[in-house]
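[job 4471] stage=fold_predict status=RUNNING
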Amino acid sequence: MNFPALRVASCMAPNADDTCRAIARYLERKLGIATEFVDDVSWCERERQFDAGEIQLCWLCGLPYVWKADRPAPLIELVAAPVMAALRYGDQPVYFSDVAVHKHSRFVSFDDLRGASWAYNEPNSHSGYNVVRHYLSRMGETGGYFGETVESGAHQVSLRMIVDGEIDASAIDSTVLEAEFARDPQLRGNIRVIDTLGPSPIPPWVMHKDLPSALKQSLHSLFVGMDDDAEGREILRTWGMARFDPIDDAAYDPIRTMSADAASVRLSAQD
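[job 4471] inference complete, writing structure tokens
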């Protein structure tokens, strides 16, 4: 294919990087073009480069996806969405936010967390921030439910803060939590999930709309066909995925609705 190079990035949790790097190598072999996985800058810089067209393919949280897609002249297009293999996902392109506490915590459900200390990964996250504020809005809790909140910077940092007793609870992307449990059995022994928010539409892979039409079609086909290819299936397995599904913009309308519900909600009085 006559294209100089494809730059690929992930704005997901760092524990997904190995899978994303393998996807980039897979695309390089299948497309026959040079492919670079960008992981030497912050996720914020990766997103900026994607917006600028300097990165052409990205795994992106659903909340920033809808913000970008709803701009007057959007510069992105959907490629495909993961379908996780575990039974809890119901063979659909969805995920959850698991409310995690320390195993010795007194908390047994979200309703017990009034006045507790809470960590969120960052305010552009659906799983760690937006869906929590939406849930509070449905509870009628708009003025500050938690005693204090802190921005941790990443789901994995939030988990470490729980284990170290620095905060009481956090909402963790279920796919990130499952990957961390698989990598660190000791963490599983120190974390307890007391509630689950969702399901929500899962973070999609997106591409810059200015890519050549033939390359965009090839990317669609390669992602959706990974589960029919032995090498592709092995890559999917590393992140607990069954396959990638084609997906359209309307699938992310629930995030738009949740974001509107969340707009006036404060997590704590300090917000």
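[job 4471] summary: The two ends are 50 Å apart (CA to CA).
[job 4471] exit 0
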